[in-house]
Amino acid sequence: MKKPTFPLRVSKEGVSVTIGLVEKNGHKIFRVLYREQGKRKQAWRTTFDAAKRAANDAIEAVLTGDASALKLKAADRHAYLRAVEILEPLNITLDHAARDYADARIMLAGKATLAEVCRDWLKRNAVELPKITVADAVEKLKKQAESDGKSGDRQKQLAAALDAFVTKFNQDAVDSISAKMVADYLTALPFKERTKANHRDTIGFFNRWLVLRGYLTKGTDWLDGVQKYTKRKLGQISTYSADEMRRLIAAADDRILPMIVIGGFAGLRHAEIARLEWQDIDLEEGFIEVKAENAKTDTRRIVPLKANLKAFLLPLAKKSGKVVSLVNTTKQLLKTATDTADVKNEIEALEWKHNALRHTYISARVAESGDVPRVADEAGNSPQVIRTNYLKRMRPAAAAEWFAIAPQPKIG
Predict the structure, then answer these.
(1) Same structural domain, 328 and 202
(2) pLDDT tens digits for range 202-219
(3) In this structure, how many other beta carbons lie within 10 angstroms of the beta carbon of residue 202?
(4) Any alpha helices (H) in 293-371, and if so which ranges?
(5) Torsion of CA 310, 315, 317, 323, to 10 degrees
(6) Residues 6+ apart with CB under 8 A from 242
(7) Helix (H, G, I), strand (E, B) or coil at 9
(8) From 24, 73, 95, 257, which residue has the greatest number of CB atoms within 10 Å?
(9) CA triple 144-147-149, angle to 5 deg
(10) Residue 235: inside a domain, yes or no?
(11) The domain spanning residue 294 has which CATH number?
(12) Distance between CA atoms of 293 and 295, rounded to whole angstroms?
C-alpha cells in the first residue's frame, strides 16, 4: 500500500477535509482540519485510521445536513449543487475550483478577466507551430541571407556563430531551446568576451527570425536573463588627435582615403564602409544612407554629411560602384599608418588604432551637438552603449578643429 503524503486532503462531492501529521512530545499524532458553520474546527487522533474516520464523519455530516454541520439556505444550497454539477465532468472539487479562481484573480489584480486572459493565450497558442530542428532552421536562414543579398561579411558572421550553435544543438527542435540552454552554451564557449558578445547578438537575431517566420511563438526570447558580454574592455576608448588625422589623410592614397574620412567624419563602422556604394552617398542633399542590409544592427539609418567630408569625397565620387573597392582594407590601413613616418625628421609612424576613427567622430559629434540620443541614432547604437563604449570627453573647440580638417593640395 502506498504510504500517504501529508498534509492529505480527503474530498467528497465538493466537501474537503485536511489530515495533517504533527509531532508532539516525541509522539506522532494526526490533526483533522475542517469547517463547521463557517468556523474552522480541528480534531486530534492518535492513528491514521482514526483520523480518516474522523475526516469521513465530518464530510458526511456536511453532506447529510447534520445539525452540527454547515447550514445552507435554499438559495445557497441550490448554488452549491449547481457548482458541483458544473465541476463534475472536470473531476474538480468545489474548494479546489474556488482556490484556483482566487489565485488567478489575485495574480491578475484587476488588470484583466480570466476569460480575456484565456482568449489571449488561445490566440497566440491555438495554432500548432511547424516543427523544425536548429540545423534545418539555420540552413534556411543562411539561404535567405544569400538570396536577400546580404554582404559576404554578414553571411560569414552568421555562419561562424550559427554553425557553432548547430554543433551544440543540431537536431533539437527550436521550440525546445530555452534561455538557460543558451546561457549555458555561451558560458562554455572557449572564446574571449568580444567573440561571445558577437555570438550572443547573432543568436538573438536567429531567435527573432524564427519568431517572424512562425517557428516560435511571439514573445519568445532566448536571451531573457542571459548574461551580456562587452565587445571591448571599458575604459579603453582610443581616439586620434586632429594632427594625427591630418597625417593619416596625407599618407593615404585615393583607394583607401574614403574609408578613413568616412570613418572619421561620419562614424560608420569599418564593415559598413566596405559595403557602401556611391549611390548611398547623396553629395547634393548632404547625407549617407546606411541600408539595413549593410548595417550591423540590420536597421536603416541616415548620417549627416559634414562639409569637410563632402570636400574630401567630391573629387573621388563616381556614379556607381563600391566606395572602397579594395579587397583587403585592413592591410592598406596598416600601410597608411606606417607611411606616416618621416625618417628624415625623426618622426615615428602612427599606430593604427582599431575603431579609433569612429570613437573620435562620436566624441566630437557629442561635444559639438550635446545630444547623445541623436548621435546614437546616427551611429546605429543605443545612448547607453555610446556613453560606455565610444564616448571620450572632448572639448567643443577640439571638436570644431576635428570637423574643420580639410583637403590639402597634393605636393609633387
Answers:
(1) no
(2) 999 999 999 999 899 888
(3) 18
(4) 307-313, 329-338, 356-369
(5) -80
(6) 398, 401, 402, 405
(7) strand
(8) 257
(9) 110
(10) no
(11) 1.10.443.10
(12) 6
Alpha carbon distances (Å) from 396 to 266, 369, 393? 17, 9, 10
Cell 441550490 belongs to 78
Structural domain boundaries enclosing 258? 242-402
Question: Which of these three, 51, 71, 91, is where a domain ends?
Answer: 71
In a shared domain, residues 249 and 201 = no
Q: What is the pTM of this model?
A: 0.47
Domain identity same for 394 and 313: yes
Buried b (16+ CB within 10 A) or exposed e, 124-138: eeeeeeeebbbbbbb
CA quadruple 341, 399, 238, 266: dihedral sign: negative
What's the number of domains the chain is made of?
Answer: 3
Given a contact cutoff of 8 angstroms between Cβ atoms, the answer to whether 15 and 62 are in contact is yes
| 101 inside domain | no
- Residues 281 and 317 sit within 8 Å (Cβ to Cβ): yes
Block residue for cell numbers 502506498? 2
Gap between the terminal Cα atoms of the chain:
103
Residues 204 and 309 in one domain: no
Alpha carbon of 323 to those of 262, 288, 319, 327: distances in Å?
10, 12, 10, 12
Looking at the structure, tell me whether residues 265 and 398 fall in a common domain.
yes
The pLDDT tens digits along the chain (412 residues) read: 578 888 888 888 777 889 999 887 778 899 988 877 667 888 888 888 888 988 888 888 777 765 444 455 667 767 777 887 888 888 888 888 888 888 888 988 888 888 888 887 777 665 677 899 999 999 999 999 999 888 887 888 899 999 999 999 999 999 999 999 999 999 999 888 888 999 999 999 999 999 999 899 888 899 998 998 876 554 467 889 999 999 999 999 999 999 999 999 999 999 999 999 999 999 999 999 999 888 888 889 999 999 999 999 999 999 999 999 998 898 999 999 999 998 888 889 998 988 899 999 999 999 998 898 998 899 888 888 777 776 778 899 999 999 999 998 765 4
Rounded CA separation 224/323 (Å): 39
Output the CA–CA distances (angstroms, integers) from residue 250 to 51, 236, 343, in the order listed.
Answer: 96, 27, 16
| Same domain for 293 and 203 | no
Q: Is residue 318 part of a domain?
A: yes
Would residue 223 count as lying in a domain?
no
Among residues 50, 71, 92, which one ends one of the domains? 71
- Residue 51 Ramachandran class (φ > 0 left, ψ -120 to 50 alpha, else beta): alpha
Do 196 and 250 belong to one domain? no
